[in-house]
Amino acid sequence: MAEAALKRAPEDYAAAARDEVRRVLDRVKAEGRTSLTAPEGKLVCDAYGIPVPKEGVAGSASEATRLADSMGYPVVLKIVSPDILHKTEAGGVLVGLRSAEEVAKGYDTILANAKNYNAGARIEGVQVQQMLKGGTEVIVGAITDGSFGKLVAFGLGGVLVEVLKDITFRMAPATRQDAMSMLDGIQAHEMLKGVRGGDPVDREALADVIVKVSQLVSDFPEISELDLNPVFATKADAIAADVRIVLDFDAKPRPAVRSNEEIVTAMNRIMRPKAVAVIGASAEAGKIGNSVMKNLINGGYKGQIYPIHPKADEILGYKAYKSVKDVPGVIDTAVFAIPAKFVAAALTECGEKQIPGAVLIPSGFAEAGEPQLQDEIVEIGKKYNIRLMGPNIYGFYYTPENLCATFCTAYDVKGSAALSSQSGGIGMAIIGFSRSAKMGVSAIVGLGNKSDIDEDDLLAFFEQDDNTKVIAQHCEDLKDGRAFAEAAKRVSKKKPVIVLKAGRTSAGARAAASHTGALAGNDKIYEDVFKQAGVVRARSLRQLLEFARGVPILPTPKGENVLIITGAGGSGVLLSDSVVDNGLSLMQMPPDLDEAFKKFIPPFGASGNPVDITGGEPPRTYQNTVRLGLEDDRIHALILGYWHTIVTPPMVFARLMVEVVEEMKAKGKVKPVVASLAGDIEVEEASQYLYDHGIPAYAYSTELPVEVLGAKYKWARGAGLL
Amino acid sequence: MAEAALKRAPEDYAAAARDEVRRVLDRVKAEGRTSLTAPEGKLVCDAYGIPVPKEGVAGSASEATRLADSMGYPVVLKIVSPDILHKTEAGGVLVGLRSAEEVAKGYDTILANAKNYNAGARIEGVQVQQMLKGGTEVIVGAITDGSFGKLVAFGLGGVLVEVLKDITFRMAPATRQDAMSMLDGIQAHEMLKGVRGGDPVDREALADVIVKVSQLVSDFPEISELDLNPVFATKADAIAADVRIVLDFDAKPRPAVRSNEEIVTAMNRIMRPKAVAVIGASAEAGKIGNSVMKNLINGGYKGQIYPIHPKADEILGYKAYKSVKDVPGVIDTAVFAIPAKFVAAALTECGEKQIPGAVLIPSGFAEAGEPQLQDEIVEIGKKYNIRLMGPNIYGFYYTPENLCATFCTAYDVKGSAALSSQSGGIGMAIIGFSRSAKMGVSAIVGLGNKSDIDEDDLLAFFEQDDNTKVIAQHCEDLKDGRAFAEAAKRVSKKKPVIVLKAGRTSAGARAAASHTGALAGNDKIYEDVFKQAGVVRARSLRQLLEFARGVPILPTPKGENVLIITGAGGSGVLLSDSVVDNGLSLMQMPPDLDEAFKKFIPPFGASGNPVDITGGEPPRTYQNTVRLGLEDDRIHALILGYWHTIVTPPMVFARLMVEVVEEMKAKGKVKPVVASLAGDIEVEEASQYLYDHGIPAYAYSTELPVEVLGAKYKWARGAGLL
Question: What residue stretches are annotated with the ATP-grasp domain (chains A, B) (predicted)?
Fold first, then answer.
């Protein structure tokens, strides 16, 4: 059969493998079981080319010794019983049997132990297995996550790893590249390279097992859990010593997802509407429907505005209608500013009017213990194909259209960052920070209860929105993590996607659950899947905001060589720490470049990296060294450490740096430059000036500029640009 | 002998133990060796009561079997040779020998291997050792660090731990409490509690080994390295299976340190002088000596000011002198503003004038490749007992005396934080931040090259300075880490000591070395010793500054129960994450308290912790819940999450919170309260107002307020107040 298989074309081989596994699973299902026996596990592994030890099942002690003789000693004996899942616990495993006598005796012992453990257990025999020796024990497995679906896992075997939880995940199916990245993705990855003179593992063989496991669970959604534990990884191969497969025949298939085209078409109408209806528009100051009207008008929106009100003829100078159905023209977006209990009826009218999007500001739904109210509007949305934003949100801003579809204050600093938040409070923090830090935004969107529109819909819209250069999202959960990750993987190739995942810690997750009714997932899974999808993860609210502000204005670096040029040696040390903390590489300075820098700095300055120009230097020393740093193509990014002195005051430094960067840009030398400014309060003005001119700069911080540069690098690496 | 020992008094026993070890070491020294043989190691362990397995040295195969028979099988055989340190590598170790035959054969094998490895090695026999089984393999060791001296180390045994570097250090001698904290101080500490049904280790026995090792290396400074690897830790005991001791008979004793009284007397004269001389005072604007004079005068210093100048009769209205020796009165502090090459001569005159302190602003010493210039002034300082601050510094500020002994701008925001920096650039960042954030300071001190006065001198001064409530230090190295740690351990019991250790990473350490010529130590050692000394470690420059600003204004919490009260559910989730990140504990809400909070919040708000009062609430909901939070003695600290709404605008919230806190303070209910404000830019003013009134508050950040609270808690725990 093996030979016949080799002669088949790969796709036939894959089909044959699937047929083989299907037969096994069908039998298990027919027998009403939910887990595979060891021999069944072996059949499945064989079908998918996952290496397992030689083995056979013996029905008697003599059969066991015959099998053991044929595969060579030592061997392992294991009970085969559909009723005993935890074999070790049942005394159903004996290892290291070195002779026929030991095997015969072991056979009897195991049977006795099994009977003792569970007198009623059906015993199908004792498995005799080639015992694997040496190598590194690792674990390859797969789980089914509520949000991300099938995930493949990899870790080192052994008690210590269980204690340290040193394991890494990827969405299945995993590519070979994903699998290789998993080998480097565990804390103890050095172990795989061989320690204390031990052999390195065969990385290709190990990656192959990971890829095949991930393919297997993707092909068969009913495989809810799979464990190869341990896999013995040696310099020659990777063989799974034990296979455990658990099935869930009731697993529901993933609901069909909308096509990207469908999402983009609807989102474009909603986010860039030609006409907006305000349901619950009001002339009375203090009402939400009044704030929304004012924001639309005062924000400068140029499209049609239709106030909807049961009685009024006119609101704030606009003709009012009793229902959206009375409006003569097409409506793209309906903003709701009415109490929760009235939403369903008004939404149905929107459906009849064929409005593609509803912005549901009202609270009082799932978050307030009224899930049935939310279910009702979700059904209406589905029936009429209305996309729902919210409920329980502040609304949204889309600055290129001067559109403030919100009851919060109007926001008008245009720029290229698109932000969203699940929580209204965080949305307000985004608005305040944006205004304060002069961070231009293209959009700010509240997602609230996410009854329909969620992060991946926004990703699809911002992907094709030329006004957006970076996408920054705050979320507490992802209702469909897989859809998000797939969208992010595609979008992050083009634009940085930055995510602050709240509820990272178990305490945070509990708070999130009480806040939104959504159960937050295991944070390590988010961590790994975000990485797999090219998402840059922000660790704090301030980081989300600073990354959104700084990442889009930095050019993409062309390589990993980072150089620090500093006037303050002390800043150089702290900046070096930050470089390491943020996964960046301090360039190893080539001798000729070192000499070139030396010419510009005093003899007691330090060459190497950081280039320490020392504190008392005039502006031209900064100018000369930074120009050289931009000019030499071996250097890919610059971190500047400025020290406030009388000789080179803050604004002199700032203007000069902008000049040099502009001068070199004109010569085609474009590199990311960030700056840390140490000095008296004048450095704040200088930092703002630098930021306004394309150099993310921070006063009194040696960390923030490097964090922003690090985020740019993380994105560029994930997007395959480095 | 053992019985005789038991009858002795403990101090006699200790003396006898020291005598025993002294005899062993003397013999090793006499023989010109620098390491102990295994039997010598056993003697040393026996003397100090460190448990080791039964063992003996055999000179023949038959002697080996006789020994093995007497101690029981299995046994281990090990070569005994002063010329073979790495026994395993030499094939000089055989384990698990189960019979007399195996032992006899093993004896011959080991001898053959040893000859093969090193034909010239002197073979003293083969050690036969009881083989320890089961338990958890751990490592206890000791090293000699250039800055901290003797350190005791603890970690788990095995390859994986070597890879993960999961090891923890304490200064020796370690107390029992130190030793117990080490058991919890490794990443994989769960291992010691028993996993997968394994037994927990005997923590007392393990701690005992650690304490004894730390005492041994403290008693014998010539023991430069010691390794007990592995120690088998079981539920009953902890036995060291292998002992390795390396000696350094050339080790220099630690130089005598000044008494605290001596340090404080000198530092008080320097920092709070009755008279200051400015050597190199100048009337010419732009000169350093001019800036120093102006800062002294304009800063409002009320003591005597004596300008020293070779020619001038008067400078800025003050009578000038040619030399300090010409000044009629006593001088406490001489500020140097002359080039490096003139310092030595002027310093000698200061010595002759019996001035106790010199503030050496000039650069051009060790940092500029002129170590001999620095050596020269250090010698003069020693000769005349002048304490030297610097050289290569900005000087210092001591605001209670209105003293600005610096060439930087005058600084006048008085407060209770004393800051210092090794680097001038960082000093300027401290000044800028302090002014910008309105952080009141008692002192800002530049330490620069630290030729004499360093961090521990400042600790001694600020300890007894009633104007200082918190001490925050930036350093790149510690010239005498032990003196620092001992001072910090004492001082941190009274006042928080916060340290930003730059050069944490290897890249940072390299930059530090090029910057100051000081070799930065292993960061894990700093981490652990700081903890042992009660030092709160800042992870970034901004953290150092924010901790210095916030920690002194927070009252000390009386317990670990932290409660979050938030208007924004989203902030509650992020604040919960921060609580975990900063080592704080979210209080488990007792049912009666939960009910009490529920009365104040809307039915759809979330009770529990965080208390989510929801966003649309009026001021009284914040007031009621925060008052309850302050009133109930089971709650020890509050974190507030504010959400900007029209109903409760930022300044209304801020004033109200200050009112409630004041009201409860009047009733004796004093607790730390911090706040995170999410909203439009008005929250910045509200945050500043809150901060000014004792509530550290941050706009657009859910991390910073919790970090500050976390720092207060870390300090309180280290000081034994919790």
Answer: 42-78
